[in-house]
Amino acid sequence: MSAQKVCPLDELAPDAARRVVLDGVAIAVVRDSSGAVHAIGDTCTHGDISLSEGFVEDDGLECWAHGSKFSLTTGKPLNLPAYEPVPVFAVEIVDGDVYIDPAVRLEV
User: Fold this and answer.
1) Is the distance from CB of 6 to CB of 38 less than 8 angstroms?
2) 30, 37, 38, 85: which has the fewest Cβ within 10 Å?
3) Tens digit of pLDDT for each residue in 16-68?
């Protein structure tokens, strides 16, 4: 499997998330306030809710339903009620476009 183009970088607003599905894997693509782009599993491990509908703050993406916040860099929950992490995927920016390989999960 190889990285797939998700969108142009300039279509990702700062402090916002976008849901993409690549090869059946739901991924939340997030551009933080510093401009860095992250990709984490889009499904909250507490309530099967789409994280991309949540709130981006600092290094986290908060589930809108129950308030669990997940680290954008490690996928680990930063508070309860979630206690299981979400996967984290490598992001590449090539010629102004965002690429993600859904088969490659980072170990952090």
Assistant:
1) no
2) 85
3) 999 999 999 999 999 999 999 999 999 999 998 999 999 999 899 999 999 99
Structural domain containing residue 60: 4-105
- pLDDT single digits (tens) 68-104: 999 999 999 999 999 999 999 999 999 999 999 999 8
**How many independent structural domains does the chain possess?**
1
CATH of the domain at 21: 2.102.10.10
- Provide DSSP, 38-59: EEEESB-TTT--BGGGSEEETT
Contacts of 21 (CB under 8 A, 6+ apart): 27
The dihedral through the CA atoms of 90, 92, 97, 103 has a sign that is negative
Residues forming a β-bridge with 21: 26
